[in-house]
Design brief:
The chain is 38% helix and 26% strand. It has a six-stranded mixed β-sheet. A hairpin with a 4-residue loop joins strand 1 and strand 2.
Length: 244
Amino acid sequence: MDKISKNVGKAEIIVFTDGASRRNPGPGGWGSVVVDGERVFELGGGEGNTTNNRMELTAVVHGLAETAEGSDVTIYTDSRYTIYGITKWIKSWKKNGWITKTKNEVLNRDLWEKIHDLAEKRTVKWEHVGGHVGVRGNERCDWIATEFADGNNPRLYRGPVKDYPVAGILNIDHDAIKAETKKSDSSRSRASAYSYVSMVNGVVQTHKTWAECEKRVKGTRGAKYKKALSSAEEATIMGEFKSS
């Protein structure tokens, strides 16, 4: 199969990538969408026992490999691990014999080396985009990766942009509402808990630690639990659980 090459020297090639893992490690998948001028190529695959980071890197390997040497390529990924690794950390890793500052072997060395070799033969620009905030290329890659992680075999598109099922694939604007919601959820997950509220068999209890709450709900069918950030929120959650 010919590499994408017709637009070399005329326009950049856009590559969206993403990876997914149902557990870490566990079943995983990766997806890439390569856009060159008026053509779109979707790539994807899965592994039975892998990690999310490994799938993120695998998507980049295949996306870059689809382009010809000498291409101008922009990679859009939601993985800062990938971007920092290839633009910053890899220099120290190579210098130190692929040993980290904590004296451990660098994980996924085989993939980092492949990405490095591919990137050396192309002019690559690395761009970060938010995940799950409506960036169309990222959302499509996530869908492909998730399908493969779930053991499905999605039909991958290869053809003209005008017939591509994802309209405006090169539009990297994000959904502001999704982005703000994700930011809020992330801030909430990092905030210190006032308490945890659980409900098992219709009985609502509060817990001062997650360990105490987890012990009550873990493995219990139909159990509910939620973190409260204040006494007022605790009361609200208790009311919601009791009325549900």
